[in-house]
Amino acid sequence: MKTQRSADIASGIFLSLLGLIAVLAALRIAGSPDVRMQPRTLPLILGWIILAAGGILAARAWHLREEERIIKWPDRSGTFRVLVTLASLAVYLLLMDPLGLPLSTVLFVAFLVWYLGRYRMVWAATLGLASGGTVYYVFIRLLQLSFPVGPLGR
Amino acid sequence: MFFSWDYLLQGFSLALSPTNLLWALVGCLMGTLIGVLPGIGPSSGIAILLPLTTVVGPIPAIIMMAAIYYGAMYGGSTTAIVVNIPGEASSVPTCIDGYELAKQGRAGPALGIAAISSFVAGTLSLVGLTFFAPVLANVALAFGPPEYFALMFMSLSLVISLSGRALLKGLIGTALGLLAAMVGQDPLTGGARLTFGSEELMAGVNFISVIIGLFAIGEVLVNVEEAVAYIYEKKKLDWMPTWADIEQSWGAMLRSTGVGFFMGLLPGCAPSVTTFVAYDLEKRISKHPERFGKGAIEGVAAPEGANNATCSGGFVPLFAFGLPTGPALAVLLGGLMMYGLQPGPMLFTQNPQFVWAVIASMYIGNVILLVLNLPLVGMWARIALLPFPMLGPLIILFSVIGAYSIRFLAFDVWVALIFGVVGYLMRKLGFPMAPMVLASVLAQMLETSLQQSLLISQGSPLIFFTRPIAAGFMTLALLSIIRGVWLELRSRAPEVAEEDEA
């Protein structure tokens, strides 16, 4: 998928498959005798549109014989940074319930600031603590929003 | 007689009393903060602060709540421009050019124009509210489900223009946005759709999560990948808009006022719709439409003007019929009723003092907000100078808070995370994001009004062409679609969204 053409072919095929899944899922939606338009009608139409449009996208790219646009994919270190960021966000969400939003925020911000900026641990931890503290006092104490508080709530 | 200069002057004398002025100022400050903080929209902001207003009388309480409402609308543009986080769907069009301007070191002028445009549109719409409320309120009553469907269909046809040179990809994004919005319960029957047996999916996919993922998280991933040190590399920032910026945006401010105000009269026609319409209108009539998406200052002025004009327009049916046009106004209606005030035709005759004091306070509130926001522009714009390794995690943190606080479900944050990856890939593969956002915002109202219309017409789609207003909107939509398809068929260039061509 280094060029726009190959990326369009690949994404067109993927979208067609996605459209097919949507069509199959829409066909399983239960009907209702009381309505003029069945609950499955719009999802079914949209599934077919995605299936057809994906096919057209791939076919058009296949036949295109013009100057290639190169897609800037990340190098190995760039890919690794994106994956670490996504993984840390996923861990943050998983920890949110047991640890609460403030404490998990401290860990998430401290880690990601340290990882992305290579700052000193103390500086990253300070920023993490400031973020967690702000979250606790502004969103939980002051505005009393229903965020998970974890051990701080006990 | 609805309007009288005496009533208006009395209203101003009441609104300008030190106590009421103070509450308007407090409301404007709180509203701006609510707008800037992620996750607390104007409706939840007013709801949270409603109990606080009970310590004062009805007039200062409603003055304060109205100030919170339009203060939040002012503040909402800040995160959209500076860090590409649209806290509300209405801020998405502001992101498109506002964030580009921030990356060019022009966050200050963008924020300044947003404040000026909000002031101009807010004030002009108030003039409309002052003089023509009962006449204009009838517009809302002329709209039934077929007219709403036609209006939503016309709004959906904006994807043609929002897709730029990638119409097919824009169409795919639109279909995906609509499909994602249909996950969950059917609005009429309540039956499960596309849930694959998952209980979480029964709650549906909220469009705010989609927006936060596509824009904020997707943008952070792109910057992380490229190891960006600063959003704006140079140290010199422009603080204030130049006269050239104001001259360039003047027309957009006036046109967006018209669009926002008149569409704001319609229940359900939220700023999330009118801001897209105003943005699209500016792009269509611009002599240089190619600048849109790359930092056109009119691209900030138009949606911000429409946003505030819609808010003021919404007060017309609220006061005249007790008809809230959006969730925030519904909460405000609750506030009015809490004080024993029944909005409707009798409100103007039974409580003229109250109505005119609130209207007068809104003029004053707009001035307060302009005075309050312009000096803060420099402070907000400096955010662009923060090192990205510090700013990136904070953007993700605010995105998480914003997504979680929609319904206080962790599921919504996971949805934002997934759409963050989708947004990252869409940027790489040249798919425009705005059509997907617009589709996910319009989906529910589009489907509900379509189903209601078909129930009225006993299944005949001709209902959209036999009623004059609906037929007008449908014709405009179809013409726009035909023109877009014709241009697409003539073009043989590869499908790439305009923002990715640089």
Instruction: Give, in order, the helices and strands of chain B.
Output: HHHHHHHHHEEHHHHHHHHHHHHH
C-alpha-based Rg of chain A, rounded: 24 Å
Q: What is the number of helices of chain A?
A: 5
Number of domains of chain A: 2
Whole-number mean pLDDT of chain B: 84
The most extensive interface between chains reads: A-B, 70 and 65 residues
Give me the secondary-structure category of chain A. mainly alpha
Number of spatially distinct domains of chain B: 1
Oligomer: heterodimer
Question: Which shape of chain B, going by the Cα principal axes?
Answer: globular
Describe the model:
The complex is a heterodimer of chains A (154) and B (502). In chain A, 71% of the residues lie in helices and 0% in strands. With 154 residues, chain A is mostly helical. Chain A folds into two domains: 4-63; 76-153, no CATH class. In chain A, helix 3 (76-99) runs antiparallel to helix 4 (101-117). Chain B has one domain (12-500). Chain B has a two-stranded antiparallel sheet. The longest helix of chain B has 35 residues, at 107-141. Chain B starts with a helix and ends in a 12-residue tail after the last helix.
